[in-house]
Design brief:
heterohexamer, A: about 350 residues, mainly alpha, 22 helices, about 75% helix, B: about 120 residues, rod-shaped, binds sodium ion
């Protein structure tokens, strides 16, 4: 063999580079920019962006079936292990006492459903098959792991766009919500001060809660068992107070590693060939819509509760009901002001999985 | 039967189910808190009071406290988005926020030992 | 499809619920209660209980072959990876210097064997096949990971009851032993004060010990190699003092994650269908017996040594010889007063594996 | 040959083997400790003496000590089953226990740096 | 069955013991001695030594295909996961600012190539096939994970001797280099003081660097993508400063566990049968040579630069250019004086993989 | 064509490629640093200055500093090969070494909080 025959071999990387790759690499850099400069969900957008970068380096082999990303995908996405492990960690970081102190807030969790089902209907109207439509609808759950879990189960072919929509929009909430809030609520309503004086919750209640929820939801909505049970397991490890080691492992090793690998593998599915198509654009559109619907529904729901309670409830908390729970990577400090969000994952996961279940039934 | 009809049916059923589950959950929580209401006092070690109580301890412990506090504060400062998020709501919620931050500081203090052990 | 055809679908969770499930769920809650309220082996009983809960939620899918628990089972139990990783961590927490300081104590480890072989014979008498009988006998090793390791190898169908017996009884030692101690020893004997003045052990000896033991036991009893070698590896990482990072990883990440997953997967095998049968009851009975035999044998052995030593040895330490080594999850402080126990795992593991080996030979 | 006979044979062989191995191990340990007896003094940093020696150090180090101690103590208190277990033996063993606890405290102190680095 | 038929069964461990096993066990003990007493790459030589011990205990079963080591090998070596995860961790520990501050130093990285290709040619001259020769040449990269990655890809049958050579020689650098340094440089040259006043590097540059390098190298040398990209991913996690959790996970959990398992599995491939042959001796010889060539080339390269720079560069840094980057297990303090080494991994990995690529092409 | 010839060709090509890549990288780095040169000031919290600045803080923080320093120093002592390695180069490099050590101490100080939080 001579040089002439070797050159193409040496330059095969550049020779296989397509405009699609260039576009996706730009996307990857954009995602990483948002993650680093704007600190938008960095724990997920940074790995996703990097994975996307790898997926668009021709012949790199990282994202091939036997490449590292392929290995991780088989190990953690196909098996749904990564999202479930993330739930264990999230559960170990959640504090349910605010919810237990004011149970009626649970109702707000229902608001999130409008986004899910509204999107589901629209997706079908556009012409997506039921399984895909359900997976797209779950973007309305505004909960990354749930979206990924359901998509991996019902429509793995849409995993990449759904994950990207779920996480990037989840991080756009600060931009999406405020205008809608101003639009749908009066200044007077926004000024309502709610007295926050929860009655103390006994350790017993906190420990019994995760067990009971797992059992009840498990029996009512079996399909919700995986997400709910892992979330509750994590919470049980934390509140039980007797397995500090396991609780710490869930809050650190387990969730960190799962998050890193999840992000990388999701990003690695964003190859130009598989990602650049109409469906992706439609999904991104539907996802944005789902978020809008969620917020509106949440606010109207909040207004309703506000009226029913004789204006002792601030309708803005309705918007909180639909919002994402604190992602694993956020600093502990950030979690503090999410306390009202924590309470609603449960319902999101439920809604998500109910939709998933019914979709898969048919 | 058109896909759309099915979708609407799913929606009806799905949301019905979710609402049912949520209301059931609501009752369960009410019941649960009501039953366990007698024995209150959750993990006092986790609550701020401990701090005071501990200050009484020997100097070494006080030192430990001081450091933990300094670090806790420092974290609060370093923590990037510590200022209220764009969606921050009315002061009632900020109160709740501070409560939980205190709660966390307390937690940090008495987690310390485990961490080192 | 109409609502009539959907309803059973929606209620399938409840429709598939059996009395057996109810009974097992009660067991699960009981195990978790013991773990949380009584702090009995919480690091294991809590996950086991939760796994048992999941295994008895019909259609939940967590414990199906492709469910999370199934995936973890294939990854860590079939491969025997989890118990071995736990051993690495345990080894990194053990301090062999007390044993090296008073080598004759090694003899006490032999006492544990009576429980193993006594149970083995009884199990066969009852009519268990050899492989199962051997696995049951190993409950007498009073060492969870060993029991699980051997059962997974010889009789995986009995894994659940054996694991439950091993861990729940192990935690009953404080209740089982004292009466037998009072019964079998005189006050005078119990009052014997032993002078605890071990000669200082050189770092060299501590480092050479795990290597030599691995080699010698490995050559004498090849079947004991996996457990012994991983235990010794962990200990070597610790005493060598040059691989702080690895030693810490073994004592934390590795053992915590392995323990959590081990507990969950073991619990997940406790489905009503597979668990509620005569064998389980027999095993629980034999296990209790094994513990009794161990204690008695240990005490008699202790008395023998006491007499031979001219009453300079307190026979109570004989009971220590059979006891469980500190479980991974115990707080470091707890380990301190286990120092006399630490020394005997080695023999337990040996006994366990010898029985296992011979059983498997035929 | 009946299963029971086989079982008894296994027992005989198995226990014989185990006893043999244990006794062999015993000899090995005696030999090992005897050979390495010359060079005593293992890892002084791990032993309590270090504490004293260190107190002499600069204030910063003393502060570190103080904290570590406070935490160590606190852990001792928090540690749930720290009181002698039901099977606790006569005081000779408690002595051994304390020795090891001291040993651990010492260890904890000089582990510290690694942990933070 | 009677005792006569059982005895050989009981003694099968000893009966299967060969002189080869004895020799390899001595090697294992030697490796562990170097690791513990001389602190030569302990994080790797200790596990490798222990794995080698296990591999030479007959019938132990640990190193069988379904044994623990076999399981780990399939999970992390065949998939190349362990070396890549180590790279993520190493990347998270590297500080590229010294390199960015004085980019011309990048040239020194090229020196390492002479070792690689020199050895490659010699290996072929001796008669190794191309794929094996390339893997052997990569020993000249003086970078454990790279050597293991390439060998696992091109010539897994030589994995054990190549890994041993790479790591043991890497640790001999302090012995190999100084004499060559004294020989090839004049005292005057060695006395040259270089002014070390790098211009401050902006955070932006540090964050953009790993992304750009991944992209550029990935396109130029696709085969280098896996190693480079994982190295850069780790570095990105660190410098981005927004994913503290992930960065810590990479620097601790991930790299520690991967390092421990990597070492064990590599060592486990050192069975007498597979290791004791001419090839091994040749490889050990060639490896030593590769290191010598690297050093000489590096020094000459340094002298050249020294002359070109008008003696303002100390030729000794040429030797630094070829040297190993800080291994995962080294204490952070040790990293400090490796700053000049840090900078060259990149090139090593590139060189390594280029050779690997070309080798595999034919 | 003999294997050896192929090997030589590989060498030529491979090294050519590597040199090309390295030189390309060199330019990229120069370009990168030149572009971003405007905005200097990398993560001041990581640099020694912070120490000084912090000493001004409240006592608790000073205590935290003291401890962190003590530990940092202790680590430096414990760290086995802390003395210059056999390959240690002329003092210019030791200067660089110390710089990085300071850098690391700084880092350690402000990592602290995260670690504990
Ligand atoms: Na939601
Ligand atoms: Na035992
Ligand atoms: Na090199």
């Amino acid at each position: 063999m001579d040089l002439a025959s070797l050159l193409p071999e040496l330059l095969k990387g550049i020779l296989h580079f397509t405009w699609g790759n260039a576009l996706m690499i730009t996307t990857a850099l954009a995602l990483m920019y948002l993650a680093v400069a704007k600190e938008i969900e960095p724990v997920l957008l940074l790995p996703i962006g990097f994975g996307c970068l790898l997926a668009n380096i021709p012949m790199g082999g990282m994202t091939a079936a036997e490449g590292m990303m392929g290995v991780l995908y088989d190990a953690g996405i196909s098996t749904e292990l990564f999202p479930l492990l993330i739930f264990v960690g999230v559960g170990a970081m959640i504090d349910f006492s605010p919810l237990l102190a004011q149970p009626k807030m649970a109702l707000l969790g229902a608001a999130g459903q409008f986004g899910i089902f509204g999107t589901l209907i629209l997706a079908i109207a556009i012409g997506f098959p039921l399984n895909q439509a359900a997976s797209i609808g779950v973007i309305g759950a505004i909960d990354g792991p749930t979206s990924i879990f359901v998509a991996a189960k019902l429509a793995p072919e849409l995993l990449a766009p759904i994950a990207v929509a779920a996480y990037s929009y989840m991080s756009l909430i600060p931009i999406i919500q405020p205008p809608l809030m101003k639009l749908l609520t009066t200044k007077k309503e926004r000024m309502i001060r709610m007295d926050y004086m929860p009655k103390p919750i006994s350790q017993k209640a906190l420990i019994a809660f995760p067990m009971i929820v797992t059992l009840v939801i498990g029996l009512l909505i079996p399909e919700a068992t995986p997400l709910i049970s892992m979330l509750m397991l994590g919470n049980l490890l934390k509140v039980s107070g007797v397995v500090e080691r396991l609780s710490k492992a869930a809050q650190n090793e387990i969730i960190n590693i799962a998050t890193l690998f999840l992000g990388l593998t999701i990003g690695a599915t964003m190859s130009a060939a598989g990602f650049l198509n109409l469906a992706t654009i439609q999904i991104l559109g539907l996802g944005l819509l789902a978020f809008g619907l969620d917020t509106v529904a949440g606010l109207l729901f909040g207004k309703l509760m506000s009226v029913l309670s004789g204006h002792r409830i601030n309708p803005l908390i309705g918007a909180a009901g639909i919002s994402a729970f604190p992602m694993a990577g956020r600093l502990a400090a950030k979690v503090a002001n999410d306390e009202d969000f924590d309470n609603f994952i449960l319902m999101h996961a439920m809604g998500a999985n109910t939709a998933g279940q019914l979709g898969s039934v048919m | 039967m058109s896909n759309l009809m099915i979708a609407l049916e799913i929606t009806a059923l799905g949301m019905g189910l979710v609402f049912a589950a949520i209301i059931l959950l609501w009752w369960i929580m009410v019941l649960l808190t009501w039953i366990t209401a007698e024995k209150e006092s959750t993990a006092p070690p986790l609550s701020p009071p401990r701090l005071g109580e501990m200050q009484g301890g020997d100097n070494a412990r006080v030192a430990a406290l001081a450091v933990a506090f300094a670090l806790a504060q420092q974290e609060m400062e370093n923590a990037h988005p510590l200022s209220d998020p764009p969606t921050a709501l009315v002061s009632a919620w900020q109160l709740g926020m501070r409560t939980q931050q205190l709660y966390q500081k307390g937690e940090r203090l008495n987690r310390q030992p485990r961490k080192i052990g």
